[in-house]
Write a structure and sequence with these properties.
two-stranded antiparallel sheet, about 20% strand, Rossmann fold, alpha/beta, about 230 residues, 9 strands, globular, 7-stranded mixed sheet, single chain
Length: about 230
C-alpha cells in the first residue's frame, strides 16, 4: 500500500499542470468569495494545487490521507503568503477538527474517491460554521447576506460526475469502473456526486454542470458550485 501511495503522489505531482489548464480559471471564479483571514479546510488536499487560488492571509488546514503528498504541499505553501498551514493525515469521513471550525471547505476531484461520500459531506457540514446573528462578531457582512446576520460557512467544490443515465458515456463509465478504481485511487467514474451534494442537507446549493476535456474523455461531465451551511 505504501508503494501505491508513493506512485499516486508522484502521479498527482505530474498532473498538477494539466489540472490547472482544465480548471484554473474556474477555480479563480469559484474561490473569489473566500476572504483573507478565513479558516479554509481542504479535504483531499493532495499536493497543494489549489493553494495558489486562495487569497493571502488565509488560515489553511489540509486533510490528506496520503502522507507522500504532504511535502510538495508544504513547499507550495512556503512560497505563498498564508497566515498559517496545518496538515492532517486523515480521511474526509472522519475530519480531526472541532465542530463549527471552518469558514470554508474545499473539495476538488475528491469525492469520487471517498469510500463513504455521504459521511464525508456530513463531516463538511459539521466543521463549517453556522449562520449566526451578529453581536460580538464585528466582522463586516459578506456580500449578499442580511444585515445583522453572519452567513453560514461555504463548501466549494469541483467534481466529475456520472453522465446521463442512458448515454453511451454512462455505459462506458460503468464498463471501465472495475479497472479504473484500482488505478485511480478508488475513483468511481459513474458516481452522481452532484446529487449527493444537493441531498446532503445544506441550506443552499448553487451548482453548475459543465463539460471538461475531450468529448472522448469518459470522466465527464463535471459540476462546480458552492453549498452553504
Amino acid at each position: 500500500m505504501s508503494l501505491y501511495k508513493r506512485y499516486f503522489a508522484a502521479l498527482m505531482r505530474l498532473a498538477d499542470g494539466a489540472q490547472e489548464r482544465h480548471y484554473g480559471e474556474r477555480k479563480e471564479r469559484l474561490f473569489d468569495s473566500i476572504a483573507p483571514g478565513d479558516r479554509v479546510v481542504e479535504i483531499g488536499s493532495g499536493t497543494g494545487v489549489n493553494l495558489a487560488h486562495l487569497p493571502p492571509g488565509v488560515r489553511y488546514v489540509g486533510v490528506e490521507p496520503n502522507p507522500h503528498m504532504h511535502a510538495p504541499l508544504r513547499r507550495k505553501a512556503d512560497a505563498l503568503d498564508l497566515a498559517s498551514v496545518e496538515l492532517h493525515e486523515a480521511r474526509a469521513e472522519a475530519l480531526p477538527l472541532p465542530d463549527e471550525h471552518a469558514d470554508a471547505v474545499l473539495s476538488t476531484l475528491v469525492l469520487c474517491s471517498v469510500d463513504r461520500p455521504q459521511q464525508a459531506l456530513a463531516e463538511v457540514r459539521r466543521v463549517l460554521r453556522p449562520e449566526r446573528q451578529r453581536g460580538a462578531d464585528r466582522s463586516s457582512p459578506r456580500e449578499g447576506s442580511a444585515p445583522g446576520v453572519r452567513p453560514g460557512g461555504r463548501f466549494y467544490f469541483i467534481e466529475h460526475v456520472a453522465a446521463s443515465e442512458e448515454s453511451t458515456r454512462r455505459r462506458v463509465q460503468r464498463f471501465i469502473k472495475p479497472a479504473w478504481r484500482p488505478l485511480a485511487d478508488g475513483c468511481r467514474p459513474d458516481q452522481c456526486t452532484g446529487a449527493l451534494i444537493e441531498q446532503a442537507g445544506f441550506a443552499e446549493v448553487q451548482i453548475d454542470r459543465f463539460p471538461s476535456g475531450s468529448v472522448l474523455n469518459p470522466i465527464r461531465p463535471h459540476v462546480a458550485g458552492v453549498a452553504r451551511r
